[in-house]
Design brief:
Helix content is 69%, strand content 6%. It has 275 residues and is mainly alpha-helical. Strands 1-2 form a two-stranded antiparallel sheet. The termini are far apart.
């Protein structure tokens, strides 16, 4: 009987020892799964696994992990509770100030969250009564008298426009022509510079030392000469054309004048031609 009792006691101690040896491994498994879920951003599930690990092994670091998981899950109430428990268990933690800052931040977020979840005011508001629109009054048509025939003006409508257009064309033509003359002058100046450099190289004075930049300036001056002469010639031609068109428009407007002639018992018009 004593041998049976001793054997049962030994078996019981062995079972308890195995159970206690398995507890850290089970807590470690919950911690590993919680970390995996945390990496997958499944924060609610990660927090549950960390809680299960803490039930088996009361490591304060798990409280911090629980707070982090609930913080990212948006469950600020549980996150604040976990962080406070962590600070209570580890009062001298190296990240004490950081955790307190997160607690203060989440308390503000929790207040805003609760405020946004408040129910809207109950009941409804009755709309204002809709009054019927008054019946439209019958439309009364007033006979419209025929407008009197227009009296001819002293100057035909097109004449003033022609004068204005002619004046604009002449001013524009003079301006464009002046720009063209200036461009021609610039082209001639660059031609003189190019010829001077060319003569300097091909008919050098005694003691002349060749300078490569002189050769480059010839090509540059010749290119500018061509460009300014082309632009100047085109501008002069355009300016002369616009000036001629402006003179013709003004000349056409001055040929004809028309004015009404009214008097007792007669009506007519006077047409004046200018030669």
């Amino acid at each position: 009987m004593k041998r049976v009792t001793i054997a049962l006691g030994a078996a019981l101690l062995l079972f308890v020892g195995v159970a206690r040896a398995d507890e850290p491994n089970t807590a470690k498994a919950h911690f590993a799964r919680g970390t995996m879920l945390y990496d997958l951003q499944r924060y609610d599930e990660a927090a549950k696994e960390y809680e299960a690990a803490y039930e088996l092994k009361q490591d304060p670091a798990l409280l911090f992990n629980i707070g982090q998981a609930y913080r990212f899950a948006g469950n600020y109430g549980k996150a604040i509770g976990a962080f406070k428990s962590y600070l209570r268990r580890v009062p001298g933690a190296s990240n004490h100030d950081e955790v307190e800052g997160r607690i203060a931040e989440m308390e503000k977020l929790q207040a805003e969250q609760q405020k946004s979840q408040e129910k809207p005011p109950g009941g409804t508001i009755a709309p204002a009564p809709i009054e019927p629109k008054p019946a439209a009054a019958p439309e009364t048509r007033v006979p419209v008298e025929a407008a009197p025939a227009p009296i001819p003006t002293a100057v035909p409508p097109g004449t003033e426009r022609d004068q204005h257009a002619g004046r604009t064309l002449k001013i524009t033509g003079i301006a464009v022509g002046a720009v063209g003359i200036a461009a021609l002058g610039a082209g001639i100046a660059f031609a003189v510079l190019a010829q001077s450099a060319f003569n300097e190289i091909n008919s050098p004075a005694s003691g002349y030392v060749f300078n490569p930049s002189t050769q480059d300036s010839i090509h540059t001056d010749q290119a500018l000469e061509t460009a300014f002469l082309a632009i100047g010639g085109a501008a002069v031609v355009t300016g002369v054309t616009l000036l001629v068109l402006g003179v013709r428009a003004s000349h056409r407007a001055s040929h004809l004048a028309f004015s009404p002639a009214l008097g007792p018992g007669r009506a007519g018009a006077v047409v004046r031609f200018t030669f």
